[in-house]
Amino acid sequence: MESIACMTTMLLIFGILSSHQSSAHSPGQPSTGFAAAIAKSLDSLLRDYSFHGVSHPRTGVTYQGKVPSNISGVRTAMVRLRSGSLRFRGLKRFHEFDIPDGVIARPYVQRLALVYQNLENWSSIYYRLPGHRFIAPVLGLLAYEAEDLPLTNSTELHILATEKPISIKFRNLAQKTGAKCVWFDPEGLPRLSDLRPGNVCITRRQGHFSVVVNSGGLVVPNLRPGGAADGWSNIWRIAGAVAGGFLFLVLSVLLLMWVKVYRREKRMKEMVHHAESEEALQKQRIGGAQLPVAPMVRTRPALENEEPMAPHSPASE
Ligand SMILES: *[C@@H]1O[C@H](CO)[C@@H](O)[C@H](O)[C@H]1NC(C)=O
Ligand SMILES: *[C@@H]1O[C@H](CO)[C@@H](O)[C@H](O)[C@H]1NC(C)=O
Ligand SMILES: *[C@@H]1O[C@H](CO)[C@@H](O)[C@H](O)[C@H]1NC(C)=O
């Protein structure tokens, strides 16, 4: 009985989870909410790691960051700049990013730090665009207040390119036909725009950027963006389908077993109940009348000798 209750609970939880999953990732829905919060926490982690070990960075020098082993493959870099320098000179070739002059940061600070992220093979784990798959890694450009040294968990700034836009040049796109730029803004909302000649995307603000193609409706996380993405994504797709099918089969069998057990118990209960009520209604011939008599009474009823109704019965009051 306990195992049935346990199984029911498991099935219920699975049902809730899977319905939640499907509603969270249904086509057309942006990956906001929970997913955005997870991506944000990755931002904080990468900021801390890119600041860590560079307690006194030299202005204008790019430092490559180290990441914890649980996200190995991800790359970060950091540069500390004067706001005036960013505004009047920009920053050329900050990895894939080319920052022109005219970029301002809000709220105003004298010194800020720009953090670069390349999520590589972790891209589609942290970012997702329903109905699309990444054909390039997700790249991040974020700005932080960096007034005081050593740098710690400083607040995020908003940057805005007031003149020319910031450009992002993607290398080694796996595919080009139908490719679109995607920008996940600071709130995690995705926006699509055209890919420019030379595999360039442009932006006026900070956030996360990549290139996607339509995946033909089937939304499957592809774990290898860029490079040999196609072969891998197909393998994952097939593996996903097989695993999903198997899981469905197992769950169906469990459900069937549960229904069987439940039915048997129900039938047993019904039989017991039936037997009881039959017993209860067993008629006994007493004094020439057919009266329903409970069979389990300890003293056998002897109506003939019974005393008259008690004086406090409702009828007499
Ligand atoms: C990875 O490890 C770091 C430190 O060891 C930890 O702070 C962080 O939460 C972990 N991140 C993930 C995504 O597991
Ligand atoms: C990404 O690649 C690194 C090796 O470069 C590996 O350690 C890591 O497990 C991979 N991550 C995922 C999600 O496949
Ligand atoms: C990080 O920020 C929080 C609040 O923003 C602050 O309370 C905490 O002391 C900071 N940690 C460090 C190491 O500066």
From TrEMBL:
The keyword Glycoprotein is annotated on this UniProt entry? no
Region of interest: Disordered: 297-317
Which UniProt key words apply to this protein? Membrane, Signal, Transmembrane, Transmembrane helix
Gene Ontology CC terms: membrane
Which positions carry the signal peptide feature in this UniProt record?
Answer: 1-24
Q: Where are its TM segments located?
A: 235-259
Identification of the protein by name: Uncharacterized protein
